[in-house]
Q: What sequence folds into this?
C-alpha cells in the first residue's frame, strides 16, 4: 500500500516534469496536411469485397464455410459433427448465439445427431471455469461486427454476451460473417462502425489462426491462440 | 530541341578521379565535348568536403567547400563524374550552409550541379553508337548516386544504347559495397566483409567488367577483387562509354 | 575521457563476422524479409503516398504531443485505465513493482515489449522475487538462454532451428529432440498456455495509443499478446511517450504500413484494441488495467527540431532488415536494446553521443534505412548530426553527452585536411608528390593498414586530371583525337 502511494506521488511529479519539458520544446510550425486519397482508393463493389476478404484470409490459413441466411446454423453444426467436436462454446446472450442454440435444439428435437457436439454456454465469469476453458473446450463460436476486404479480416466487439476469450482460448474459432457487413478497409471500417468515437473495453480484428515465424522464419500455425479459424460466410448480398 | 541545350559547362573532377581515375575524368570531358558542349575545367579543384561533413567537422567542410564554389562563378551547369560528390554539392551543401551569410550563393551553385550520366541523358539526350567488341558487363549502383542524388537508371540507359554490350544483373544491386569514406577505416572489418560480398556477387555475374559512376566504390571493389586475384576488372562508366563509342 | 569512447561495437562486430552460422542466419533472414516487404508494395507511387500520409500523421502527433498525452490520459482514466508516468527506467520499474505487489502478484506473463527491454524489467522483477516470463515465441526462446533480442520484431532471428531444437530438448521438461518447427511450436504452446492460465498478471507494450478514445492498440500474430492482456486479472501496459496519435482513423494507415514494412504481411493475425478493464457484465478480461508512460530521454530528443524525427519511429524494423551492416553482424553486436540503424540514432541520444561514439560511426551512410523507413526518418542525416554533436558543443544543443566524443587526434586530422584542401597550391604540390611517390607508401601505414586487410593498396595515377588538363590548356588543344 505504501508502495502504491509513493509511486503515485513519484508518478505525478514525473508527469509534471515530462509535460513541462515537452511544452518548453514548443510545437514549432504548422501541422502538415493529411492527404487520405491513398486510403480512399481502396474501394471495391460488394461482391468483390467478399472475394478479396476470402482470398486474403485463406492466404493465412483461414477456412471458409459457405452459407445462406437460412442455413448457417446447419452448416455450423455439420462442421462440428464432421470434425467430431465434443463441444462448442457459445454466447447464449448474443443474437447469433441464441439463434444457434435454438436451431441446435430444434434439430435435436427432430432426432438429428443426438450424440453429436454439445453446445456449451459461456454464461459465468471466467474465474468459475478457467481450467475447463483452457483444457476442456474444443471450439468457440462468435459473431462478428464486420469484415475488411482489403487485407482480409474479421471485426469483433467482445462483450458480456460474447466474452473476449471465446475467440482466443479454444483451439478452433468458428466465426459468423455476413457478407453485407464487409467494409473496404480497416480505415473505412473504423469510420463505418464509429470506432473512432467510442470503443468498448475490447475490440479487435482477426485475420487468421494464431501463427508465428519466430523459428527460422518458418510459418507455424496455432502457437498460442486458435489453431484453426473457420469463417461461416453468409452470402446475404442479394438481399441487402 | 538543341536550342535549350547548354553550349558550355563546368567540369568538376573530384579528388578521387583527379588522383586515381584521371582517365575517367578525361573521358567524361570528351563525352561532353562529343555532344557538342564546350567544357570549362577550372584549376584549383580539391575536394567537395564530404569526408569532414560526414564526420561532423562542418567548419572545416565549409572552408573547403567555399574555395570550390568560388571556382564556378558563371551560371553554367557543373558536371561531376561522381554521384556521391554530386550528391554532396547538390543536396548537402544547402544543409551545410544553412544560416551562413553565403547560403544563397551556395544554393544557386547547388542548383547547377549534375552527375555526368544524369546530364548526358536528362539534359543532352545523347545518342551513342557502339564501336566495340561484344562484352558482358555488370553495374554497381552507388548508394549516394541513387539515394542522395536520385539517379533513376541513367547510367543503365546509356549502357543499354550500346548494341554489343550485355548488362548482367548484379544480385543485391542496391546494397552498399562497404566503402562509406571514413567508415572503411573506422570499421575495417565490417567494411571489408561488405566489400568481399559485393566482389563475390559481381564475380557471380560472369561479367568481365564492373562499371560504376563512383571512384570510391570502384577503388574499393577493385582493391577487393585484386586482393582475391580475380579476373574481373572495374571501370568508371565515363571511361567505358568513351572507349566504346569513339575510335582511337 | 578517451576511455569513455570504448563501446566495442567494432570488436563485437568483428567477432560476429567470424561466425559463419550467424552470418548465414542473418543473410537468409534479411534477404527473405526484404523480398517479402517488396512484394507488399508493388506500386511505388502508392507506397510513397502511404509513406507521406504516415509521416504526416506521426509528425502531427509529435507537434501536438503534450496536448495529446493529456487528452489520452484523461480518456484512459475515464475508461478505467490507471495511468502512471516515469521519467526514467528505474522509476518505471518501481511503479510496476508497486502495482504487482499491491495485488500480491508473483508471476507475470509478458507479451512482446521493447520498452520493457529498455527498462531491463525482467531482471529487476526477478531481484524482487517476481517471475517475469516472456511469451512471444521468439522472446521465450531467447529468455531460455538468457539472451537479449537481436531484432526488435524477430527477437530470436539469430538462431536457426537446429540451435532451437537443441535448446528445447535441454531446457523444456520432458521435451524430445526435434527439428520440426510445428512440433517445436507445439512444445512452447503447451508450456505457455499453462503459464497464461496461472499468471497473476500480464504485461504488454503498446503499438499505438489513441488520444481521442483512450485506447491501447496491440499488433501481433501469435495471440500471446491477447493472452497476456485478457487472461490474467491484472494487465500492465508500458509505452514510450511518443506512441500517442490523435485518432483511431490515423492508426489505420500506420498499421497498414507497419505490418507490410516489418514482416511483409498485409495484415497481422490480431489487431487488438484495449479501451478499458473488464466492463460491467463482462465475463472475462482483467479487472485492472494500468499504463506506464515512459520518458527515458525522449523528451530531450523531442526538444531538438531535427532529432525529433527519431520519435516518429513505429518500430517496424525495416531499417535493420535493409541495413548492410546489421545483416552482417546481427543485433547483439550493437550491445544496445535497439540494434540496427534506428538503434544507432536512438541509443546514442539516450545514453550519450560520446559513449556510443562508434555506433554513430558504424554506418557507411548508404541510406538504405532512410529509403525504406515508413515514416521517412532521415536516419543518415541524423547520424551525421550526431557525429557533429559527439565532437562539438554547439550552443543550444541539448544532446546527451555532446562534445564528449571529441579527441585531439581527430581535431588535428580535420584541421590538417582542411588546411590542405582549401589551399589549391598546396593541394597541387601534394598531388604531385602523391602521383610520383604514392606507390611507395607502405601498405602497413596507419589507416592504410585498415584498408589493406582485405584490399590491395590504391595506387595514384601517374598524372592527375588537373595536371593533364593544365597541359592540354598550355598546348592550346582542346581535343585529343
A:
Amino acid at each position: 500500500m505504501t508502495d502504491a502511494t509513493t509511486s503515485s506521488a513519484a508518478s505525478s511529479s514525473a508527469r509534471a516534469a515530462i509535460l513541462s519539458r515537452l511544452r518548453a520544446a514548443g510545437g514549432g510550425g504548422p501541422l502538415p496536411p493529411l492527404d487520405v486519397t491513398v486510403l480512399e482508393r481502396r474501394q471495391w463493389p460488394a461482391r468483390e469485397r467478399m472475394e478479396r476478404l476470402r482470398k486474403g484470409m485463406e492466404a493465412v490459413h483461414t477456412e471458409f464455410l459457405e452459407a445462406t441466411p437460412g442455413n448457417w446454423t446447419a452448416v455450423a453444426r455439420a462442421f462440428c459433427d464432421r470434425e467430431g467436436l465434443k463441444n462448442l462454446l457459445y454466447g447464449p446472450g448474443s443474437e447469433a448465439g441464441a439463434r444457434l442454440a435454438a436451431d441446435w435444439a430444434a434439430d435435436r428435437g427432430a432426432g438429428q445427431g443426438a450424440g453429436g457436439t454439445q453446445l456449451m454456454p459461456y454464461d459465468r465469469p471466467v474465474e468459475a471455469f478457467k481450467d475447463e476453458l483452457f483444457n476442456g473446450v474444443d471450439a468457440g463460436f462468435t459473431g462478428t461486427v464486420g469484415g475488411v476486404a482489403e487485407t482480409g479480416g474479421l471485426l469483433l466487439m467482445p462483450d458480456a454476451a460474447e466474452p473476449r476469450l471465446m475467440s482466443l482460448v479454444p483451439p478452433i474459432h468458428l466465426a459468423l460473417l455476413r457478407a453485407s457487413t464487409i467494409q473496404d478497409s480497416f480505415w473505412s471500417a473504423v469510420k463505418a462502425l464509429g470506432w473512432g468515437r467510442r470503443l468498448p473495453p475490447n475490440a479487435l480484428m482477426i485475420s487468421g489462426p494464431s501463427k508465428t515465424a519466430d523459428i527460422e522464419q518458418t510459418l507455424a500455425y496455432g502457437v498460442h491462440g486458435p489453431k484453426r479459424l473457420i469463417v461461416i460466410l453468409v452470402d446475404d448480398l442479394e438481399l441487402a | 530541341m538543341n536550342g535549350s541545350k547548354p553550349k558550355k559547362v563546368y567540369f568538376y573532377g573530384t579528388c578521387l578521379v583527379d588522383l586515381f581515375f584521371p582517365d575517367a575524368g578525361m573521358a567524361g570531358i570528351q563525352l561532353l565535348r562529343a555532344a557538342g558542349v564546350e567544357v570549362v575545367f577550372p584549376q584549383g579543384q580539391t575536394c567537395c568536403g564530404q569526408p569532414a561533413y560526414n564526420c561532423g567537422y562542418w567548419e572545416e567542410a565549409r572552408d573547403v567547400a567555399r574555395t570550390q564554389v568560388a571556382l564556378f562563378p558563371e551560371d553554367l551547369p557543373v558536371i561531376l563524374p561522381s554521384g556521391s560528390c554530386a550528391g554532396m554539392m547538390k543536396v548537402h551543401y544547402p544543409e551545410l550552409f544553412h544560416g551562413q551569410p553565403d547560403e544563397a550563393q551556395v544554393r544557386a551553385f547547388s542548383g547547377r550541379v549534375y552527375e555526368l550520366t544524369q546530364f548526358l541523358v536528362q539534359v543532352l539526350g545523347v545518342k551513342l553508337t557502339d564501336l566495340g567488341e561484344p562484352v558482358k558487363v555488370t553495374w554497381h549502383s552507388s548508394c549516394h548516386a541513387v539515394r542522395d542524388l536520385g539517379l533513376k537508371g541513367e547510367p543503365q540507359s546509356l549502357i543499354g544504347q550500346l548494341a554489343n554490350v550485355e548488362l548482367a544483373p548484379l544480385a543485391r544491386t542496391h546494397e552498399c559495397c562497404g566503402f562509406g569514406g571514413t567508415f572503411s577505416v573506422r570499421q575495417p572489418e565490417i567494411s571489408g566483409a561488405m566489400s568481399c560480398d559485393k566482389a563475390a556477387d559481381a564475380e557471380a555475374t560472369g561479367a568481365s567488367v564492373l562499371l560504376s559512376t563512383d571512384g570510391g566504390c570502384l577503388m574499393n571493389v577493385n582493391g577487393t577483387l585484386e586482393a582475391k586475384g580475380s579476373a574481373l576488372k572495374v571501370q568508371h562508366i565515363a571511361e567505358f562509354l568513351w572507349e566504346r563509342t569513339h575510335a582511337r | 575521457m578517451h576511455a569513455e569512447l570504448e563501446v566495442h561495437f567494432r570488436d563485437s562486430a568483428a567477432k560476429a563476422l567470424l561466425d559463419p552460422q550467424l552470418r548465414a542466419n542473418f543473410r537468409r533472414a534479411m534477404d527473405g524479409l526484404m523480398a517479402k516487404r517488396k512484394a507488399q508494395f508493388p506500386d511505388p507511387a502508392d507506397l510513397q503516398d502511404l509513406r507521406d500520409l504516415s509521416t504526416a500523421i506521426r509528425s502531427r502527433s509529435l507537434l501536438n504531443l503534450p496536448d495529446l498525452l493529456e487528452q489520452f490520459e484523461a480518456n484512459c482514466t475515464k475508461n478505467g485505465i490507471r495511468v502512471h508516468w516515469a521519467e526514467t527506467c528505474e522509476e518505471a520499474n518501481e511503479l510496476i513493482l508497486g502495482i504487482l505487489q499491491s495485488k500480491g502478484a508473483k508471476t507475470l506473463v509478458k507479451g512482446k515489449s521493447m520498452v520493457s527491454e529498455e527498462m531491463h524489467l525482467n531482471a529487476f522483477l526477478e531481484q524482487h522475487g517476481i517471475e517475469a516470463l516472456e511469451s512471444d515465441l521468439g522472446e521465450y526462446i531467447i529468455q531460455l538462454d538468457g539472451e537479449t533480442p537481436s531484432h526488435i520484431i524477430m527477437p530470436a532471428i539469430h538462431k536457426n532451428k537446429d540451435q532451437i531444437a537443441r535448446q528445447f530438448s535441454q531446457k523444456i521438461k520432458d521435451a524430445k529432440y526435434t527439428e520440426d518447427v510445428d512440433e517445436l511450436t507445439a512444445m512452447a504452446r503447451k508450456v505457455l498456455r499453462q503459464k497464461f492460465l496461472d499468471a497473476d498478471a500480464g504485461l504488454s507494450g503498446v503499438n499505438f495509443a489513441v488520444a481521442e478514445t483512450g485506447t491501447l492498440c496491440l499488433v501481433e500474430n501469435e495471440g500471446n499478446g491477447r493472452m497476456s492482456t485478457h487472461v490474467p486479472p491484472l494487465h500492465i501496459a508500458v509505452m514510450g511517450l511518443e506512441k500517442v496519435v490523435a485518432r483511431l482513423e490515423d492508426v489505420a494507415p500506420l498499421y497498414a504500413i507497419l505490418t507490410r514494412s516489418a514482416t511483409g504481411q498485409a495484415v497481422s493475425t490480431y489487431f487488438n484494441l484495449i479501451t478499458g478493464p473488464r466492463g460491467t457484465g463482462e465475463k472475462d478480461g482483467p479487472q485492472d488495467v494500468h499504463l506506464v508512460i515512459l520518458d527515458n530521454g525522449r523528451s530531450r530528443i523531442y526538444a531538438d527540431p531535427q532529432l525529433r524525427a527519431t520519435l516518429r519511429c513505429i518500430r517496424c524494423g525495416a531499417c535493420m532488415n535493409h541495413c548492410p551492416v546489421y545483416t552482417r553482424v546481427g543485433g547483439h553486436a550493437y550491445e544496445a536494446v535497439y540494434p540496427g540503424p534506428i538503434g544507432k540514432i536512438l541509443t546514442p541520444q539516450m545514453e550519450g553521443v560520446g559513449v556510443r561514439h562508434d555506433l554513430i560511426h558504424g554506418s557507411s551512410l548508404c541510406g538504405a534505412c532512410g529509403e525504406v523507413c515508413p515514416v521517412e526518418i532521415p536516419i543518415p542525416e541524423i547520424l551525421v548530426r550526431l557525429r557533429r554533436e559527439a565532437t562539438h558543443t554547439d550552443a543550444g544543443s541539448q544532446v546527451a553527452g555532446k562534445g564528449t566524443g571529441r579527441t585531439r587526434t581527430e581535431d588535428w586530422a580535420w584541421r590538417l585536411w582542411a588546411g590542405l584542401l582549401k589551399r589549391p597550391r598546396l593541394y597541387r604540390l601534394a598531388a604531385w608528390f602523391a602521383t610520383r611517390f604514392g606507390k611507395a607508401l607502405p601498405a602497413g601505414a596507419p589507416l592504410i593498414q585498415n584498408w589493406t586487410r582485405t584490399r590491395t593498396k590504391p595506387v595514384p595515377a601517374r598524372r592527375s586530371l588537373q595536371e593533364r588538363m593544365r597541359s592540354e590548356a598550355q598546348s592550346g588543344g582542346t581535343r585529343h583525337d
Notes: Chain A has one domain: 39-234.
